[in-house]
């Protein structure tokens, strides 16, 4: 708990290394309004990175990460008269998170530049469902940011799209074909998971966490389990960690394969999608054979895992990895040698390194633009602290860069799976948690395929959930999509969007 | 008696293109599906789709004008006439004096004009985007097509397709650079005009990348059926056109007997199948290009057509 020189001007924060907060309740620092503003200012200066910002009953919290010392801190500010000083005023990435806090809790970010609702579209039967839960007052029509200039026209897209994809509204302002501004409006798949979590027991909480974003069900359940185990200081059988790692890497490979093909398909190159879909299907079948579910949903629970790996499942996974090692390089060279495809992906949808640093963007979006961060390495957790792997980082920041980061991550995941299978310890896989008997709080951070998923869990003395906040990596990726498309042509948006592949469900919660 | 026979033949020609057109579209889709390791819908699926669309009710936007309702029929009629003018299995039919290449270009241009107007009529942004892109493509594709027509006409000495086919089958032609250039130019124009990859993607669900599909997004029911059939006819037209100019073998000569007509029909079917398969293979092996690269792509067709024409002014034997 040593503060690096940079952190000294941030007042009174308890910084914690991952080896501490992974196994014990998280030490939260209560801060004053002044401290809160000071933290926001240092975020704005880029001294530390914002991991998340969330509301609680009469309080707001911020999770921070210091990249230099690899430490994490959580600050809690008790709201005064239902308001708190806006952090987004000094650090823009907090803006949508603050708007969500205002929608869910009715806590007002004072001085915020954007006071429009975010998740609440005026269609809930109550206002501030986690706060007053009062009947919904009439809401003003949503106003998009004004755009002024010569010969501009607007193209509204969504929330209902021509394809079978999740809903989101994109408001393009274009000059001819060139995009001048894109403004997103999200929240259409809000399911009220935060409210469902309140009062649920840990087991039900794990089920809910696994249903937050379907393609990341393993990563969410993993992060939730981490948070619960840390809060309760639970011991987890070692073999369970290895199995969790296996599932997480299988999920990563399946999603990356699907993404690589889908990006090419958006450039009307269907051949690549056909080939990667076959590989992805093989991954899902191996997962079904080894763990009994194609997407490995509900296999990770607090205290361990519910499915053990037998020798046949192990053989299936080994055969799968051999198959991918054999076929994937050919697909990669296919991609790299198709000039018409590269013509679409190279230099399209560029994101600058300064933006990903400011937003603390994780996953392939951040790593393709030079942000060298991977929760598996920088906020170490079992089983990755016993494994060796590279974190691919590129500087180009375009669609091609994001494809290549995915390609390298598939290769790394194959190597990780082999290591996991070679070193997996024997023993039990589940040790059910016992309640702590007192209120406790824990933090879980897991590297999902999109980036770092954060779960903050506060457990009451009777073992039920007081508050569970889950922050999808997409919170810090969606805003960059608006920046990526600027100056590109409208017809290239689907390609950029697919290369980001942000989650709607995980974001809208 | 001879007049009746000729009229019957002309009628057969018009029906043949109409009946075969959805099948060609189905074939291209099937081959593309097999190339991407999918089973794919049956080749007859487009016929079923048309039957389904004809039965469905038409949903019209509130502010749709008469133009929006009339356009599908105009587009279909113009495209059908154009497709029926191209010699498929026989030349020297009774209306073949109208089968002028420039008339075909004009008919297709009219269809494009109405489609673009209909795309803008309802006032949705996708329709507007589609229409503006379509006009950008058309502005280069049409001159390229005309230049190709000129170079073919200079070789054959006529813009009438029956005469062109007669000349091409006569053996006087030999190997000509300008004909090769015209072929490449015509293929490029055909790809662009039929909204195929790499210019447009007929199978996409991404509204923002569409050209042809964006213009017809608001259409439904029998209106959509007319437009779909017109697109199929246009694809058949281009395959038949390339076939009759550059591989004219098998087409029945004027006044041919029944056996020759059957051979002509069989060779036409083979040409369609080959053309459709080649299109599917080409489409599978290439990604769609950026919208603003399309003018460069079509510019190549324009330059080839121009070069072909210029070469013929330098020497009639090139």
Distance linking N and C termini of chain A: 33 Å
| Overall pLDDT level of chain A | 91
Note the overall shape of chain A: globular
Proportion in β-strands of chain B = under 5%
Radius of gyration of chain B: 19 Å
Q: Beta-strand percentage of chain A?
A: 15-25%
* Integer count of domains of chain B: 1
Give your account of this protein's structure.
The complex is a heterodimer of chains A (509) and B (318). With 509 residues, chain A is α+β, with helices and mostly antiparallel strands. Chain A contains 17 helices and 17 strands. Chain A has helices spanning 18-21, 33-44, 95-105, 193-197, 202-210, 217-232, 238-266, 270-291, 311-337, 339-345, 353-359, 363-368, 375-378, 399-423, 478-485, 493-500, 505-508, and strands spanning 16-17, 28-31, 49-56, 59-66, 71-78, 83-85, 108-110, 126-127, 134-135, 153-157, 169-175, 178-185, 300-301, 304-305, 440-447, 452-459, 465-471. In chain A, the strands form 6 sheets. In chain A, strands 1, 2, 3, 4 and 5 form a 5-stranded mixed sheet that branches. Chain A has a 3-stranded antiparallel sheet with strand order 10-11-12. Chain A has a 3-stranded antiparallel sheet with strand order 15-16-17. The model of chain A has no long low-confidence stretch (mean pLDDT 91). Chain B is mainly alpha-helical and 318 residues long. Chain B has one domain (2-314). The relative contact order of chain B is 0.17. Chain A binds chain B through residues 153-157, 161-164, 177, 264, 266-271, 273-275, 278, 338, 340-341, 343-344, 489-494, and chain B through 32, 35-38, 125-126, 128-129, 197-198, 201, 203-209, 217, 284-293.
């Amino acid at each position: 708990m040593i503060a690096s020189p940079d952190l000294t001007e941030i007042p009174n924060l308890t910084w914690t290394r991952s080896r501490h907060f992974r196994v014990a309740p998280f030490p939260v620092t209560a801060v004053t309004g002044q401290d809160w503003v000071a933290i926001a200012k240092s975020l704005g200066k880029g001294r530390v990175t914002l991991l998340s910002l969330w509301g609680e009953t009469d309080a707001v919290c911020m999770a921070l990460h210091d990249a230099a010392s690899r430490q994490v801190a959580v600050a809690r500010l008790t709201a005064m008269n239902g308001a708190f000083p806006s952090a987004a005023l000094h650090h823009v990435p907090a803006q949508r998170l603050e708007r969500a806090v205002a929608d869910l809790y009715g806590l007002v970010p004072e001085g915020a530049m954007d006071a429009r609702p975010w998740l609440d579209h005026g269609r809930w039967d109550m206002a501030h469902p986690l706060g007053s839960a009062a009947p919904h007052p009439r809401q003003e029509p949503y106003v998009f940011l004004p755009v002024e200039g010569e010969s501009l026209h607007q193209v509204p897209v969504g929330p209902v799209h021509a394809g079978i994809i999740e809903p989101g509204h994109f408001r393009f302002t274009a000059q001819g074909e060139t995009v001048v501004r894109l403004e997103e409006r999200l929240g259409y798949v809000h399911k009220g998971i935060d409210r469902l979590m309140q009062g649920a027991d840990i087991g039900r909480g794990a089920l809910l966490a696994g249903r937050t974003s379907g393609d990341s069900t393993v990563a969410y359940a993993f992060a939730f389990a981490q948070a619960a185990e840390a809060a309760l200081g639970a011991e987890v059988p070692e073999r369970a960690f290895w199995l969790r790692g296996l599932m997480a890497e299988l999920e990563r490979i399946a999603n990356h394969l699907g993404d690589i093909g889908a990006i090419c398909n958006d450039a009307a190159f269907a051949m690549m999608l056909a080939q990667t879909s076959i590989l992805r299907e093989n991954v899902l079948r191996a997962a079904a054979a080894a763990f009994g579910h194609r997407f490995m949903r509900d296999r990770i629970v607090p205290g361990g895992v519910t499915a053990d790996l037998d020798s046949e499942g192990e053989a299936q996974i080994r055969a799968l990895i051999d198959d991918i090692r054999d076929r994937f390089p050919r697909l990669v060279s296919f991609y790299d040698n198709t000039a018409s495809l590269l013509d679409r992906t190279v230099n399209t949808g560029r994101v600058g390194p300064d933006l990903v640093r400011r937003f603390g963007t994780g996953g392939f979006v951040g790593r393709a633009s030079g942000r060298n961060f991977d929760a598996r390495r920088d906020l170490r957790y079992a089983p990755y602290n016993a494994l060796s792997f590279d974190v691919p980082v590129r500087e180009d920041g375009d669609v091609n860069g994001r494809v290549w980061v995915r390609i390298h991550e598939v290769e790394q995941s194959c190597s990780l799976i082999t290591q996991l299978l070679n070193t997996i310890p024997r023993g039990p896989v589940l040790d059910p948690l016992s309640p702590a008997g007192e209120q406790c709080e824990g933090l879980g951070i897991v590297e999902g395929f999109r980036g770092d998923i954060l779960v903050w869990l506060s457990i009451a003395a009777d073992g039920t959930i007081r508050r569970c906040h889950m922050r999808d990596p997409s919170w810090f990726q969606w805003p960059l999509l608006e920046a990526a498309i600027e100056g590109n042509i409208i017809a290239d948006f689907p390609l950029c969007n697919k290369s980001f592949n942000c989650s709607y469900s995980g974001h809208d919660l | 008696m001879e007049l009746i026979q000729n009229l019957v033949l002309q009628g057969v020609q018009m029906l043949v293109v109409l009946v075969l057109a959805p099948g060609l579209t189905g074939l291209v889709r099937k081959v593309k599906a097999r190339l991407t390791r999918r089973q794919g819908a049956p080749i007859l699926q487009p016929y079923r789709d048309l039957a389904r669309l004809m039965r469905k009710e038409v949903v019209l936007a509130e502010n749709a004008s008469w133009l929006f309702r009339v356009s599908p029929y105009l587009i279909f009629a113009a495209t059908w006439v154009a497709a029926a003018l191209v010699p498929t299995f026989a030349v020297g039919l009774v209306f073949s004096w109208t089968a002028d290449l420039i008339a075909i270009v004009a008919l297709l241009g009219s269809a494009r004009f109405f489609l673009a107007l209909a795309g803008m009529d309802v006032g949705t942004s996708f329709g507007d985007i589609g229409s503006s892109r379509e006009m950008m493509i058309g502005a280069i594709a049409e001159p390229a097509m005309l230049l190709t027509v000129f170079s073919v006409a200079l070789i054959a000495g006529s813009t009438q397709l029956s005469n062109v086919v007669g000349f091409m089958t006569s053996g006087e032609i030999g190997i000509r650079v300008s004909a090769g250039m015209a072929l490449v130019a015509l293929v490029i124009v055909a790809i662009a005009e039929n909204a195929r990859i790499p210019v447009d993607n007929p199978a996409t669900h991404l509204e923002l990348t569409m050209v042809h599909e964006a213009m017809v997004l608001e259409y439904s029911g029998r209106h959509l059926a007319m437009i779909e059939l017109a697109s199929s006819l246009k694809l058949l037209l281009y395959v038949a056109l390339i076939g009759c100019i550059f591989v004219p073998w098998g087409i029945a000569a004027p006044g041919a007997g029944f056996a020759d007509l059957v051979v002509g029909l069989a060779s036409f079917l083979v040409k369609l199948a080959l053309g459709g398969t080649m299109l599917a293979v080409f489409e599978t092996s290439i990604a769609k290009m950026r919208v603003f690269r399309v003018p460069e792509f079509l510019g190549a067709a324009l330059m080839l057509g121009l070069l072909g024409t210029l070469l013929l002014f330098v020497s009639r034997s090139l």
